[in-house]
Amino acid sequence: MRLRTKITPYLLVTPYIIHFMLFVVFPVIFSIVLTFHKWNIISPMEYIGLNNYIRLFKDEVFFRSLINTLIFLVIHIPLQIIVALFLAVILNQNIKFRGFFRAAFFLPVIVSGVVVTILWQQLYGFDTGLLNRLLVSIGLGKVGWLTDPNIAMPSIALMATWKNVGLYIVLFLVGLQTVPNQYYEAADIEGASRWQKFYKITLPMINPTIFMVVILSTIGGFSLFIEPYVMTGGGPLNSTISAVLYIYKQGFFYYHMGYSATLGLFFALIIMAVVVIQKKFVERDI
Amino acid sequence: MKPTLLITASVVLLSLINLSCGRSEADRNTILYWSSNNTYEIQFADYITKKWNDENLIKIRFQPVPEGQSSEEVILAAVVGKTTPDIYSNMWQGDVEAYAQAGVLIPLDTLDGFLEFIYDRCDSAVVKEIRSTDGHIYQIPWKINPIMLIYNQRAIEELELDSVPGNYSQFTNAADKFQADLNGDGYIDRWFGYAEVQVTWWQRFFDFYPLYLAASGGASLVKNNKAVFDNEHAVNVFKFLRNLYANNYFSKERLSARQDVFLSGVIATRFTGPWEIAHSEKYKPEGFEYDFHHLPVPDNHEGPIYTYGDPKNIVIFNTCRNPELAWKFLRDMINEENDLKLLELSNQLPRRKNIDQNSLYTGYFEQNPKMKTFAKQAKFVKGTDASPVLKEVFDLISQQYEACVIYGVKSPEEAVKDAADAVNLLFLK
Fold first, then answer.
1. Distances A109 to A168, A179, B58, B98 between C-alpha atoms, Å
2. How many CB atoms lie within 10 A of CB A273?
3. Which residue from A44, B226, B324, B392 has the highest number of Cβ atoms inside 10 Å of its Cβ?
4. Range with lowest mean pLDDT among A275-284, B76-85, B319-328
5. Which pLDDT score is estimated for B156?
6. From the list B200, B253, B391, which residue is nearest A125 (CB)?
């Protein structure tokens, strides 16, 4: 009986342990081993020491992809937070058709990323895109939304914000609804303005939500893939190639499995470092 | 758990393991043949295997290549999982060298009668082209889809040209006359041609590569692990294409998501293959006429005008237990009569010499005169060089192509040199 009591918990966690070993531990260890090898899947692995790491530090396109990812994050995260928070504050008021607007803003979140990307590709079209038609109709010039190397990544960031903002609105709404009403009533008695109430009460009270949104959109931003893959293929002039897209290309376009694993490992370390830094500073300061 | 349930679960599990570990005993006495999943090729493979099975004891089991993102990925997965078919008939020539070096293909020149057959079927240049770097032949050249210039006959007539533009000057002059801003918004909205501007490596099969072959008389891109395209032909092609984009004769915008821009008159030409015929016949507006012409070449070009043939070849994988029988079947499958059947069913040209002069095919070409143009071009087509890193080579060229041709941030000379240097680095790794 005692033995059974001792074994049962282990038996219960065994399926998860097996799953964890097979799909997490083994791939991680295998990836690290791969970084020291050259392997194209069909031929045997060839040990090449640190060559993949040396190649990584000389790879201009990879560093370009990191900069592109950074540009995306710098545009996407603040835009996402500002827009989501602004809309959440409005949708938290007693406005007409509130339910409809809440659903409408959330709709893009549940639409397939590929579908959204294809739709925006049409919007961004140079000759036939709605945005450029609108610009021309008001006497402005056409913009190469996806063909101008300086504008392509901001265009993608704008689209990604539109796609994901609904999710963050929901998170902010949850945060806003946890702020006790007494604080606002006390502020009203003290004669605080709307902005003062927002800045002094709302923002500090939803600090944990803001932190969560920053972390989630950072991780989401780092995994940027579908949008440049479908819309631009990483172009023009590598201006939209994200780190994940480049890693994917190395692995599954060219079957440079060892090099792709090296890039993946390096990129994972960068993400870990960024999240640790964010946790240390963002959580405290806001 | 009840014992019966346990036994049933074990039996199911063992059966699944058995299924996933390979083909059943019954399958070992048959030849498994994967064709492309194109409807017409499925019809052809179905026809050919039924015919064989009616006449032979050992059967051929045919199935289209399983669905996947691309047939190349499916084949790769099959190679890795050792679940390859015995025969595969839609192998891109550029993939063969990597598989040959990995040792997963049967060297066909070791099979009885193969060399006589192949020299009888193809020109010696084709045999040279398909020979691997180790000296063996791992593929049978089966069918091609040469890339040519399709043009809108009425649009070209309206330009009052002496002939269909055949060289760079004629092409750019015609392009200059044709381009227009039809809606008057200050932007060109009618272009002379269109080629995909994406940097994806295989897009260069429809612009740079066939034009390079045309300009150079079918020269290689790589040879003996070295880039050999840093030459005037590649520079001329880059210059020519760059000029087309710089002057808005070709659209930089992706037009592929719109209604067919050729059939709707938005463009007058396109570099394309014979598959365009079936498509155009089905969707062309009333009164729309089109034809095909060789690709534009430099003004001082002399000699035959080559193009890319987009060849799809046949291989036998080393998982095949009876390569001699597989070869016997293939010999029958690609004989003259069956090649005609392929042509009739799929409008894809068998890669055999003098197909345009062979009396067996005369009737077909009389009924399909546009295909005759492709048959004449078939004498001067090239596939790809034998290199295990061909995709990377095309990708590196593509990167420079984008910088020079589309965005004009590099000179043609610089771009070609940088691409060649990058390819040479690739071979050093």
1. 10, 26, 55, 42
2. 10
3. B392
4. A275-284
5. 94
6. B253
A90 in a structural domain: yes
Cross-chain Cβ contact A237/B407 below 8 Å: yes
B249, part of any domain: yes
Q: What is the CA radius of gyration of chain B?
A: 24
pLDDT in tens, A61-81: 999 999 999 999 999 999 999
Together in a domain, B158 and B181: yes
Contact assignment for B252 to A127 by CB distance below 8 Å: no
How many other C-beta atoms can be found within 10 angstroms of the C-beta atom of residue B21?
A: 10
What's residue B1's pLDDT?
A: 45
Number of domains within chain B: 2
Residue in chain A nearest B81 by alpha carbon: A42
Is residue B60 scored above 60 in pLDDT?
Answer: yes
Q: Are B222 and B299 in the same domain?
A: yes
**Is residue A276 pLDDT above 50, yes or no?**
yes
Flag whether pLDDT at B345 surpasses 90. yes
The size of chain A, in residues, is 286
Domain that holds residue B223: 148-308+389-428
Question: Which residues of chain B approach chain A closer than 8 Å at the C-beta?
Answer: 76, 79-80, 98-99, 101-102, 104, 185, 187, 189, 197-201, 251-254, 257-258, 388-389, 391-392, 395, 399, 402-403, 406-407, 409, 429
**Helix H segments across B247-354?**
275-283, 323-333, 336-346
Q: Are residues B135 and B272 in the same domain?
A: no
Is residue B366 one of the residues assigned to a domain?
yes
Domain that holds residue A206: 59-285
What backbone torsions phi and psi does residue B133 show, to the nearest 5 degrees? -65, -20
At A279 the pLDDT is: 76
Q: Is B5 domain-assigned? A: no
The answer to whether residue A128 is domain-embedded is yes
More reliable by pLDDT, B258 or B12? B258
pLDDT at B311 over 90: yes
SS3 B270: strand
- Do B190 and B257 fall within a single domain? yes
Cβ-Cβ contacts under 8 Å, A255 against chain B: 76
Residues B121 and B155 in one domain: no
pLDDT at A277 over 80: yes
CATH at B358: 3.40.190.10
- Each residue of B141-194: pLDDT tens digit? 999 999 999 999 999 999 998 899 999 999 999 999 999 999 888 888 899 999
Residues of A in contact with B257 (CB under 8 A): 118, 121-122, 125
Let me know: does B149 contact B293? Beta carbons within 8 Å.
Answer: yes
Residue B102: which of A43, A127, A233 has the nearest Cβ?
A43
Closest CB to A253: pick one of B258, B391, B409.
B391
| A139 to chain B, closest Cα gap in Å | 10
Contact B268, B193 (CB under 8 A): yes
Residues of B in contact with A43 (CB under 8 A): 101-102
Backbone angles phi, psi at A151, to 5 degrees: -110, -20
Which residue type is seen at A142? K
Residue length, chain B? 429
Q: Judge: A42–B253 Cβ closer than 8 Å, yes or no.
A: no
Say if residue B178 is in the same domain as residue B190.
yes
Contacts of B94 in chain A (CB under 8 A): none
Q: Same domain, yes or no, for B115 and B154? A: no
Task: Give me the residue from A122, A144, A236 closest to B257, CB to CB.
Answer: A122
Judge whether A238 is closer than 8 Å to chain B, CB to CB: yes
pTM of the model: 0.84
